[in-house]
């Protein structure tokens, strides 16, 4: 077998060949940190293509259904913009635009002949995280060792999306192992943040985050085991949803830690358009995934739940804001975004109370113990095929391999020991549920708190290698609560000055202080600031609707 | 600490004291194998009490709701019969009739004052497997080491049932560890089969099976991780349901192998009345258990699914009969029950095809590997508190401790190894689902097979210690398919003669032959013969309705 670097070189050559050569552009100079304007100024896209790629998912679907825009036109426009995006932030892995255009042409034919759409996603280009197998393509998931492994069939979700009329056209970048909240691997390299390329796009669905922020895709599929949809959504300033276990089919996709049955990775939508969340979830759930994936939950899309039947029909909601998680206090821009949101919700007539977090630190530890029960062996066995190194830092200079490592510190535990950790986690789940139920006494609505609003991370997108703390998202995975990401503002050095009498609070511990010390408004300049809305297990319908309510309140308050 | 036998003696004294002394009877001589007639002939129950205890669940609930019968009357009648049953087959563990009668009196008061029932189970006595904690009572689960551990609160399901108006009054016997398909432990001893006390009642919910067969309870709750609701239901000749994971709340109950998140134990109803299955499931699901138990699935009771919306409204069903599982061929009475059922269904206008089992042997092995990943440590740590022995045989003479042991043969595996087994199991789940879907091409209904009908075991209730093979139930746990048990016939030495040109088939292997050699119609005389109906994950509504259809077809064909 050739040295692993030779395998990478060969794979990269093939990737380059998969890019239409006439779409290669001269990227802006490295000093240009914010590249979000480049796709529209570079000259590759015509005015109509710019219009198409700036259109929201619901409107795109309407214009596709009415044949105002053809699927070929829409797929071409997003493909061009995706290729430009890739040249800016290195967000793509597999690129398969020709088959996508062929599929788009079929869809156009079908609509022309029958007057009907194929399904609810007719003609919509969809990007996919580099786990979602497509027949005939490799799924390397950033492992050199998996180069050359061609899928014999589609992942169930890919089949579902195609049946719904979607047009997969590119796959997107991730970190090696997926278990890191940034996106760097030895095969495809690093994805950067389009709002400021010196910052991370987040991870593990960082390629999706960056691509969608540049409008190179109207909607993409990420996966989330500890925040991997939400962190890049938040860092890149887009919408995202982490559904509950089993709401979206996972079967037939590649993954890390396979066979780990406890804290599961889930697929969820990432999109520029809030409408994309409902469109995606409704289409996927209505396809009856439980007949295609044994782990998919037999629960129909419930429009009553979307209309907040269990939340007083949405008239008089009570949101709880978690200002910090009792472990790491968020940076000033995050605090400001929470204040903006609180004011907007109150102005819209909703009630806002404070959320008191319980046992978040322990939940984070338990989650890591469950993953690390066998992860060292998983990584070692996977990488040993080619001898590629296990990446231990995502810093630019690869200097700091000790701090904030998302790699296991030991070799694993026994199954019985794993069961004990899993038992502890189930006990905390019950405790947290009781804690939430008990809020019924303080909301004044007769119900418990309708949703929690909280940071997605203690900071906006940090510099590469510095995303050290994922517990603002991970706790909800451990509890299996669905959660969305929605944009609120961007880091503004004037409004978000570092308090020079720092700290403004007493630090919980040294780690908390270290995170605070990292803050420098100039360094984070222009980074999007998003928040998270959290609901109850399998309540995706209500969580999406409440996010729409919050989003509308924010827009109205502006 | 006293020797464990002293702890048992003391516990048994307390159990004896919990029995109303005036309800002690003189049991029939040991030569009486069939004791099912004794409760009505022993003289303890008056005619009305006999009538009450012979009444089906739906009628009981109607008469309770109309105050024709008081909750006190009904609870008294079943309590008396339960105590008689206990003296016949040793089926009870905790006995708490006084608090039950006090609760019944409250319910009567409430109905008298308000004219309303408390809930859908108003006044219905319900027996509970010895895992379901009740505040103030011990939950030993047959472990000497757990004697003296008093529950501080009710299990979630107990709360739900009480809110629904049910009256818990006794708990029922199990095997030590729960992981054995018979019911014997060092604290409470052995439960026998009321149809023939030389046979096992099955397990692990064997106390429930025996109690309900003697009509000492109209409805009970068992648990099922590999057949523990279905095996005793089948051996004792009653109805039972193993729901999918999370349909019935488990939180707050005691269990074996806690923290094992993969192949989960579930609670399900066991009853003399087919109506009891729907009554129980609808009441529990309508209580929104997902707000009380983090693992309970947010899926409402779906009356459309009960009316077989996904199965052509039940007009033209296609059942698949699995005659054997490719591992162990069933005894003649089981074969005959399948033939009876096939003929009855065809007579009722339904289609019947053959079910081809795939990978049942492997599924059984994988399931055992998952449980045994940590079970040796689990049992050892639990029993080490008092030094009670880990029971290794359930034979009467304790002779054969090698054959058919349901104890782990080694000390466990690593978490990573466990993940590999769990991964294999998920792959087989997908394969089995595809296999089921593929039957759409042979049913002629346009749908895949609506339900599978198969044995619950390769035999009717065998002699004590001889229940060696559970895979007819366990595979459906591994696949998470809901399954019911329904009675078909009883072993009849005339109709079920052993074929003297035995075997009638070529044996799969020595084990298959050993199971066949065990058959002797005289030995199994009078044992009930039940079958199993299997549906798709989270399709409890349809599975119950289809069982009602099969039951009606069997009645009509008689």
UniProtKB/TrEMBL annotation, chains A, B:
Substrate binds at residues 178, 204, 225-228. Residues 73-543 form the Amidase domain. It catalyses: a monocarboxylic acid amide + H2O = a monocarboxylate + NH4(+). GO terms for molecular function: amidase activity. Its EC number is 3.5.1.4. It holds the Pfam family Amidase. Gene3D superfamilies: Amidase signature (AS) domain. Keywords: Hydrolase. InterPro entries: Amidase_CS, Amidase_dom, AS_sf. The active site is at 129 (charge relay system), 204 (charge relay system), 228 (acyl-ester intermediate). The keyword Mitochondrion does not apply. PANTHER family: AMIDASE (EUROFUNG), AMIDASE-RELATED-RELATED. Belongs to the amidase family. This is amidase.
């Amino acid at each position: 077998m050739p040295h692993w670097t030779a395998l990478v070189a060969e794979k990269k050559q093939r990737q380059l060949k998969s890019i239409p050569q006439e779409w290669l552009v001269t990227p802006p100079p490295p000093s240009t940190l914010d590249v979000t304007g480049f796709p529209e100024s570079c000259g590759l896209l015509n005015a109509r293509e710019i219009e198409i790629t700036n259109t929201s998912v619901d409107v795109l679907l309407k214009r596709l259904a009415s044949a105002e825009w053809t699927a070929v036109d829409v797929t071409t426009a997003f493909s061009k913009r995706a290729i430009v995006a890739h040249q800016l932030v290195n967000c793509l892995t597999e690129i398969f635009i020709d088959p996508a255009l062929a599929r788009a042409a079929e869809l156009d034919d079908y609509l022309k002949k029958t007057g009907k759409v194929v399904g609810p996603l007719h003609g919509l280009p969809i990007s996919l995280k580099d786990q979602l197998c497509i027949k005939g393509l490799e799924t390397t998931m950033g492992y050199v060792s998996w180069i050359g492994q061609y899928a014999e069939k589609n992942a169930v979700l890919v089949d579902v999306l195609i049946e719904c009329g979607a047009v997969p056209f590119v796959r997107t970048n991730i970190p090696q192992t997926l278990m890191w909240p940034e996106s760097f691997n030895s095969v495809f390299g690093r994805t950067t943040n389009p709002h400021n390329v010196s910052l991370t796009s987040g991870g593990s669905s960082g390629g999706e985050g960056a691509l969608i922020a540049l409008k190179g895709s109207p909607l993409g599929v990420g996966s989330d085991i500890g925040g991997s949809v939400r962190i890049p959504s938040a860092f890149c300033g887009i919408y995202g949803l982490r559904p509950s276990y089993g709401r979206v089919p996972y079967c037939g996709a590649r993954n890390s830690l396979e066979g780990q049955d406890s804290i599961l990775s889930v697929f969820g939508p990432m999109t520029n358009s809030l409408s994309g969340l409902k469109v995606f979830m409704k289409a996927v759930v209505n396809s009856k995934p439980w007949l295609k994936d044994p782990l998919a939950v037999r629960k129909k899309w419930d429009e009553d739940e979307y209309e907040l039947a269990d939340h007083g029909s949405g008239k008089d909601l009570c949101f709880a804001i978690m200002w910090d998680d009792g472990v790491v206090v968020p940076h000033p821009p995050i605090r400001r975004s929470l204040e903006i949101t609180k004011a907007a919700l109150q102005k819209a007539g909703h009630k806002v109370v404070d959320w008191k977090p319980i046992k978040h630190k322990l939940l984070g530890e338990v989650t890591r113990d469950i993953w690390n029960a066998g992860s060292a062996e998983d990584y070692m066995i996977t990488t040993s095929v080619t001898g590629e190194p296990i990446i231990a830092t995502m810093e630019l200079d690869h200097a700091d391999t000790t701090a904030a490592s998302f790699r296991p510190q030991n070799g694993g535990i026994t199954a019985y020991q794993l069961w004990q950790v899993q038992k502890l986690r189930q006990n905390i789940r019950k405790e947290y549920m009781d804690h939430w139920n008990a809020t019924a006494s303080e909301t004044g609505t007769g119900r418990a708190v309708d949703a929690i609003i909280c940071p997605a991370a203690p900071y906006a997108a940090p510099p590469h290698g510095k995303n050290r703390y994922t517990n603002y998202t991970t706790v909800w995975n451990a509890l299996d609560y669905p959660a969305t990401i929605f944009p609120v503002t961007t880091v503004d050095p004037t409004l978000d000055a570092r308090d020079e009498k720092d700290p403004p609070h007493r630090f919980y511990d040294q780690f908390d202080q270290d995170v605070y010390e990292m803050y420098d408004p100039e360094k984070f300049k222009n980074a999007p600031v998003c928040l998270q809305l959290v609901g109850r297990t399998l309540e995706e319908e209500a969580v999406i609707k409440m996010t729409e309510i919050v989003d509308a309140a924010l827009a109205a308050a502006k």
